[in-house]
């Protein structure tokens, strides 16, 4: 017998796998990455017991706990005039072509590298599909995305609740009542994850360089040379 956990690209469940293995060696936790388009299929069918999903989702028949936010980034070719910006606003990108969005984010990033335009992605996705020929720049006023943990209402047993406790930081000696209730939407929103500025070059393998400040419509990011056509 095992507990089955699905997760979408951009989520790294390693710390919860380690914590669970320490706490419940009698019940292995088997994790599998799934496509975002099918993130609820295995949960609803019973093939997976829980899943880290990217909102929004249709949560009918599911418990859902909203966890952390993902900061949005613009993925740009490494030689793009905005590639050296510390941050961008949506207004900075309004005249820029956007790469055709593909079902596979890796293909979207590949089109960015080919010069078809920029992509707006969650930072975790951009980091997962990093390439040497693109960079990721934070977009300060784009809407963040959020990761949530979901499970079926009829599967809400002690094992599930123990894993929920691991995700929410409860120790083995803590009781469920010492934490917020684990029912759907019962938890307050988690604090947004830190700005990716410190590793914003992760999609291109470079550091941020130590500049500060963002951009806005009245002060566009510094460009190198003329606008690319």
In short:
The chain has 229 residues and is α/β, with parallel strands linked by helices.
What is the strand and helix layout of this fold?
Layout lengths: L2 E6 L5 H10 L5 E6 L6 H5 L4 E5 L7 E9 L1 E6 L12 H4 L11 H9 L5 E4 H6 L5 E5 L6 E8 L5 H10 L62
Parallel strand pairs: 1-2, 1-3
Antiparallel strand pairs: 3-8, 4-8, 5-6, 5-7
Indicate the low-confidence ranges by residue numbers.
175-219, 223-229
Strand numbers in spatial order across the main sheet: 2-1-3-8-4
CATH architecture of the largest domain: 3-Layer(aba) Sandwich
Helix content: 10-25%
Question: SSE string, helix = H, strand = E?
Answer: EHEHEEEHHEHEEH
**How many whole angstroms does the radius of gyration measure?**
20 Å
Mean pLDDT: 81
Oligomer: single chain
Give the overall shape.
elongated
Number of domains: 2
Q: How many runs of DSSP E, i.e. beta strands?
A: 8
The CATH class of the largest domain turns out to be: Alpha Beta
| Fraction of residues in β-strands | 15-25%
CATH superfamily of the largest domain: Periplasmic binding protein-like II
Within the CATH hierarchy, at the fold level, what is the topology of the largest domain? D-Maltodextrin-Binding Protein, domain 2
Number of helices: 6
Secondary-structure class: alpha/beta
- End-to-end separation in angstroms reads 58 Å
List keywords for this structure.
disordered C terminus; alpha/beta; five-stranded mixed β-sheet; D-Maltodextrin-Binding Protein, domain 2; 229 residues; 6 helices; three-stranded antiparallel β-sheet; 2 domains; 21% strand
């Amino acid at each position: 017998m095992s507990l089955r956990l699905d997760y979408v690209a951009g989520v790294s469940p390693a710390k919860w796998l380690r914590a669970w293995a320490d706490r419940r060696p009698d019940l292995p936790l088997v994790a599998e990455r799934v496509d975002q388009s099918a993130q609820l299929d295995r949960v609803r069918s019973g093939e997976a017991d829980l899943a880290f999903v990217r909102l929004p989702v249709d949560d009918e028949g599911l418990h859902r706990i909203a966890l952390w936010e993902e900061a949005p980034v613009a993925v740009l070719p490494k030689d793009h005039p905005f590639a050296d910006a510390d941050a961008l606003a949506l207004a900075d990108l309004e005249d820029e072509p956007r790469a055709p969005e593909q079902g596979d984010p890796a293909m979207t990033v590949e089109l960015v590298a080919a010069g078809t335009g920029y992509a707006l992605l969650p930072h975790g996705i951009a980091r997962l599909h990093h390439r040497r020929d693109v960079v990721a720049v934070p977009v300060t006023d784009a809407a963040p995305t959020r990761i949530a943990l979901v499970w079926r209402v009829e599967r809400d047993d002690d094992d599930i609740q123990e894993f929920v406790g691991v995700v929410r930081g409860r120790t083995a000696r803590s009781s469920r009542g010492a934490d917020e209730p684990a029912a759907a939407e019962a938890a307050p929103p988690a604090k947004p994850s830190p700005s990716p500025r410190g590793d914003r070059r992760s999609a291109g393998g470079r550091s941020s360089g130590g500049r500060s400040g963002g951009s806005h419509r009245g002060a566009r990011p510094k460009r190198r040379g003329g606008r690319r056509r």
